[in-house]
Amino acid sequence: METTGIVRRRTAERMRDTLERLVTERDMWVSTAHPDHGPHQVPLWFSWDGQAVWMCTSATSVTVRNVREEPRVRLSLPDTFDVVLLQGEAECFLDQEVPAAAAEAFADKFGWDPRVEEGSFMYVRVVPRTVRAWRGEPELRGRVIMRDGMWLEH
């Protein structure tokens, strides 16, 4: 792994960079698992409301099926050098029952409102309990920037 020129960020800087990416990025990998069917991973669009990640998918998707059986999920932004991993429990909201602010923020970000589509969609909300962030090997130590739902600032 090439580490030349990497400057190790402090926790507060990693947290700031992570929050900025959660606001600006579009795609997130969502990893779920089902006790009988095993693991499943899929990229989904997401929005960040300052406390939680919101995604939307078909109400009959494997992701929704898995979350209903096992709500623990792992999420990751797609960059494999500037890594951001989130872990938490997912909660599902039918498209007609989702909080309006979450649905409107999602529609504003993507120009697509699942609530007006044919078929049934499910919004999936994940409040992170653990967040890890690092850039390359020099930042592996101290990569946990949220623990038990609390941001670490040291």
Automatic annotation (TrEMBL):
InterPro entries: F420H2_bilvrd_red/Heme_oxyg (IPR052019), Pyridox_Oxase_N (IPR011576), Split_barrel_FMN-bd (IPR012349)
PANTHER family for this protein: HEME OXYGENASE HI_0854-RELATED
UniProt keyword terms in alphabetical order: Oxidoreductase
Domain Pyridoxamine 5'-phosphate oxidase N-terminal, first and last residues per copy: 24-134
Name of protein: Pyridoxamine 5'-phosphate oxidase N-terminal domain-containing protein
Species this chain originates from: Streptomyces canarius
